[in-house]
């Protein structure tokens, strides 16, 4: 019974990790959208550079957190090189985070039942 | 005055973060050694899962929060001091991102080692010299500000 309990625990931990990763991914994607489609136009069209100055570091922190969580998740195993590159590349593209979030939701569902 | 407080908290966070990375790197290197078998007793008769569990707990509750705080306080110091745009800081950030990535790799490797069939990647045993090298470069950049 003990190994089964251990495997259930590992599955639940993996599921929690995927869901945390999805949150980090959506926060990173959201701050990128705010930076590119709100702060940058405000700076260039409305002459309000403060928006970029505020959003730039926020997005930087969100990206760094996502990058760190991605390396942690990939290093723990179970991800192919192609999937890893897709998850990393999607973080650079506006709205790419939504594709990554879908992948992570699917993997969370496969990890274990809630 | 606020600048000095932010700098002090940044240094404290960095010290805990890098110290924790050393712990994780030493644990991964020791557990990656060929003679290290799953379930085998560790130093002074401590079982391997206990060592991995203790290192992982420290990583989760001390090292990772310290890393997040180091980023936050570092950002605040750079903003308060008007350092953004300085070339030494941009170079330092490259090494900070590399260290953060390496910490992610070590955390993930510890998680993998906690599984019964977990095996580390061959490269994960070489993290220690990389951490030392990055820390040396960062300290030189910050103290000397050569660029």
Automatic annotation (TrEMBL), chain B:
Cellular localisation: Cell membrane
Topology with respect to the bilayer: Multi-pass membrane protein
Main location: membrane
Enzyme Commission identifier(s): 1.3.99.-
GO molecular function ontology, one term from the record: metal ion binding
Record pathway: Porphyrin-containing compound metabolism; protoporphyrin-IX biosynthesis; protoporphyrin-IX from protoporphyrinogen-IX: step 1/1
GO CC term (a single one): plasma membrane
Cofactor: heme b
Transmembrane segments: 12-33, 66-86, 93-114, 126-144
Cofactor note: Binds 1 heme b (iron(II)-protoporphyrin IX) group per subunit.
Recorded catalytic activity of this chain's protein: protoporphyrinogen IX + 3 A = protoporphyrin IX + 3 AH2
GO term, biological process aspect, one: protoporphyrinogen IX biosynthetic process
Keyword Transmembrane: yes
Keywords: Cell membrane, Heme, Iron, Membrane, Metal-binding, Oxidoreductase, Transmembrane, Transmembrane helix
Physiological role: Catalyzes the oxidation of protoporphyrinogen IX to protoporphyrin IX.
Family: Belongs to the HemJ family.
PANTHER family in the cross-refs: PROTOPORPHYRINOGEN IX OXIDASE, UPF0093 MEMBRANE PROTEIN SLR1790
Protein name (record): Protoporphyrinogen IX oxidase
Naturally occurring in which organism (per UniProt): Azospirillum palustre
């Amino acid at each position: 019974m003990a190994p089964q309990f251990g495997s259930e625990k590992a599955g639940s931990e993996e599921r929690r990790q995927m869901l945390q990763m999805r949150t980090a991914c959506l926060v990173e994607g959201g701050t990128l959208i705010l930076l590119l489609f709100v702060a940058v136009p405000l700076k260039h069209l409305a002459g309000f550079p403060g928006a970029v100055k505020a959003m730039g570091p926020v997005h930087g922190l969100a990206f760094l957190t996502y990058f760190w969580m991605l390396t942690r998740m990939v290093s723990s195993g179970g991800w192919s090189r192609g999937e890893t590159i897709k998850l990393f590349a999607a973080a650079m593209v506006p709205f790419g985070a939504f594709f990554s979030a879908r992948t992570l939701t699917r993997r969370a569902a496969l990890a274990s039942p809630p | 005055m606020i600048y000095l407080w932010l700098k002090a908290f940044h240094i404290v966070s960095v010290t805990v973060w890098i110290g924790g990375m050393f712990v994780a790197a030493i644990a991964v290197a020791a557990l990656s050694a060929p003679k290290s078998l799953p379930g085998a007793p560790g130093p002074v008769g401590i079982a391997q899962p206990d060592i991995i569990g203790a290192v992982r707990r420290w990583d989760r509750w001390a090292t990772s929060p310290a890393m997040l705080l180091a980023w936050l306080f570092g950002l605040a110091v750079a903003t308060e001091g008007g350092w953004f745009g300085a070339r030494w800081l941009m170079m330092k950030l490259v090494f900070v991102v590399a260290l953060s990535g390496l910490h992610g790799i070590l955390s993930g490797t510890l998680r993998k080692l906690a599984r019964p069939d977990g095996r580390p990647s061959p490269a994960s045993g070489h993290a220690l010299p990389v951490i030392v090298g990055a820390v040396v470069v960062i300290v030189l950049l910050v103290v000397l500000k050569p660029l």
